[in-house]
From TrEMBL:
Swiss-Prot/TrEMBL catalytic activity: UDP-N-acetyl-alpha-D-mannosamine + N-acetyl-alpha-D-glucosaminyl-di-trans,octa-cis-undecaprenyl diphosphate = N-acetyl-beta-D-mannosaminyl-(1->4)-N-acetyl-alpha-D-glucosaminyl di-trans,octa-cis-undecaprenyl diphosphate + UDP + H(+)
Protein name: N-acetylglucosaminyldiphosphoundecaprenol N-acetyl-beta-D-mannosaminyltransferase
This enzyme's EC code(s): 2.4.1.187
UniProt-recorded Gene Ontology molecular function terms: N-acetylglucosaminyldiphosphoundecaprenol N-acetyl-beta-D-mannosaminyltransferase activity
Span of the signal peptide: none
Family: Belongs to the glycosyltransferase 26 family. TagA/TarA subfamily.
One biological process term in Gene Ontology: teichoic acid biosynthetic process
This protein's UniProt keywords: Cell wall biogenesis/degradation, Glycosyltransferase, Teichoic acid biosynthesis, Transferase
Amino acid sequence: MKEKFLGVDVSNYTYAQLKENIMSDINERRKSFIVAINPEKILHAQKDADLLHLLNRATYQIPDGVGILVASKMTGGSIRERVTGIDMLLALCEQASLHAKSIFLYGAKPGVAEQAKDRLKSMYPDLQIAGVLDGYEKDKEKVKETINHAQPDILFVALGSPRQEYWIVDHMHELDVQVFQGVGGSFDVLSG
Ligand code: UDP
């Protein structure tokens, strides 16, 4: 279910519903794409029709920003729970470790994804991390081959916004991955 804010769709799912839906996407081999929506992205999309279209192409637009909750309440909507990009990442890592699904961390400066991996491993010892790759690799074929070789169920993409969202839409159909999430600076946060 979605609500629209200045033309941008936002899903009104709670964490619990998102976790359930995304695990079903993996089990039923449906590709899905998660984008975090905040008021800044909604404003950018007003001046950029391509970005608006891109945001609305995502499967789940999570309400990352209290401004969205306020706007939903004011317009009679039902979004009451904030879902941040990093908390969604953690929730998916927890689900992956509980259900034997694997993840891959792509993005951030060399060494950062590796440190984020160590942090996630200490939080979820059973988590299968199929691989990591920094976000400055220039060889596009190598990026694709590395991810396809690792065959993760979930790919977290930390290239900054909207670069990561464009990257996901351009590559999701050629990658052997079910779930894609753009996570901005989350690897930097996890590694720090
Ligand atoms: N980044 C990257 N490749 C690039 C440009 C940026 O991997 O070509 C990474 C950068 O190192 C940082 C993240 O993308 O880890 C962007 O974080 P930022 O907090 O700026 O993103 P936002 O959450 O604002 O979209």
